[in-house]
Amino acid sequence: MTAIESPCILVCSIDLKTGYCFGCGRTRDEISDWISMTSQQRREIMGQLAARLETVERKPRRETRRARMARERAEASR
């Protein structure tokens, strides 16, 4: 059995605006059909992923307690 190349980086969440995964840039359909695609089909999609990821709006990172406290101190000192 041969391993199937995959762009998955285990950051599996879909950008609702573009429909692309935040981690790999594939659509839901491409992710679910990946195993049944030919090598050529997978390569064609993989060739598009970098450009797709440029259009994905990155998820805002959650503000940590430390960052929030630092921001609040900075605002209080103004």
TrEMBL record:
Pfam families per the UniProt record, alphabetical: DUF1289
Alphabetized InterPro entries for the sequence: DUF1289
Residue numbers spanned by region Disordered: 58-78
Basic and acidic residues bias (residue ranges): 69-78
Protein known as: Fe-S protein YdhL (DUF1289 family)
Species assigned in the record: Aquamicrobium ahrensii
